[in-house]
Amino acid sequence: MYSKFLDPKNDLTFKKVFGQHPHLLKSFLNAILPLTKGSFIETLEYLPAEMVPENPLMKHSIVDVRCKDNFGRQFIVEMQMHWTTAFMQRVLFNASKAYVRQMDKSYQYSILEPVYALSLVNEIFQPKKETYYHHYQIVNVADTEQQIEGLEFVFIELPKFKAKNLTEKKLQVLWLRFMTEIDEKTADASPDLLSNQEISEAIESVRTSAFSPAEMEAYDKYWDIVRTEKTLYAGYFEKGIKKGKALGQALGRAEGKAEGRAEGELLIACKTALRGISKNMARKDIMELTDISDNLLDKLFALYKKYKSEAINHIEEIID
Question: Are residues 134 and 239 in the same domain?
Answer without folding.
Answer: no
